[in-house]
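Submission checklist for the structure archive. All mandatory fields must be present; incomplete records are returned to the submitter.

[x] Identifier: Nucleoside-binding protein
[x] Organism: Streptosporangium subroseum
[x] Residue count: 362
[x] Sequence attached
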Amino acid sequence: MLQNRFGKLAAAALAGSMLMGAAACGGSEEPATSATAAAPSDGASSAAPAAAGAKVGLAYDIGGRGDQSFNDAAAAGLDKAKSELGLAETKELEAGNGETEAAKEERLRLLADGGYNPIIAIGFAYSGSLKKVAAEFPDIKFAIVDDADATGPNISNLLFAEHEGSFLVGAAAALKSKKGHVGFIGGVQVPLINKFEAGFAAGAKAVKADIKIESKYLSQPPDFTGFADPAKGKTAAEGMFDAGADVVYQAAGGSGSGVFEAAKAANGLAIGVDSDQAKTAAADLQGVIMTSMLKKVDVAVFDFLKSFADNTVKAGTTSYDLKAGGVDYSTTGGQVDDIKAKLDEFKQKIISGEITVPDKTS
């Protein structure tokens, strides 16, 4: 994801490769440097010898490369590492909708048995499987994005302050809303996506205390199809626009393209996530995306691979928050130019500690 391990894995890889992402975490408008991770290299010469023999394995979340969001951000970090660090070889495998924990384990084992080191798992859904497989291969360095539970001496946890970036786009939504009514659509109701909702609501209320905020999740765990169902995203957003909302923020992975379609049909506005989706979404939908909450997974992936090349990989948590430049908001299209000063004021207050952004809705 028939009989032996490699037969299963070949089938899994083939099935995964047939998946098509729709739209949801990506590149930054300008290169960002994490304050808590290794700085990008100023030249490949020092890193190249250490990285030249590296075979990097990357296991995507649902949607894979081409989702225009979360997975594409990871892919951008890998591509940068290929270019700047002279990696010997890379292998990218995709997840499938509704797959079992065993399928995730087998995907990671395929990479480990194939001699890939380091291996990066994209998304919290790999938490249990990565912890198990990493223990089986103690000499391989593993990293996981968005999960702090899978711990071990050879596991690096790459985490983000999604609530801080979401505060900024929540403030933007309230400042741009003409109806005092906005919406949030999450892909799956899990604690990680709740961080996006909590920050968004706090930012909107910081601008307008009595603003109306609607929230909806597209699926409940263990059903993770809410990250890859544009039709569900469109239906949910249509309901919000019909009810009077004029700005909707989506943290729904590939389902986000449906939200953008609904915004266009309703003459409303949408907010993208992870990547600068005014650059990555379908051309006819980019104009409805007033801003995106940038979650710079590309930076985290590159930083981890750079540290591997430099032989400085550390187990445990590396945090990418607003102060470190790990999250932000985008300005592509100029739709938030008139409120940028206000958003940057909020940003500085969060960085200084004057504003503490909640990471839970309750």
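[x] Structure attached
Curator remark: Residues 191-207 form the longest helix (17 residues). The chain is about 40% helix and 20% strand.
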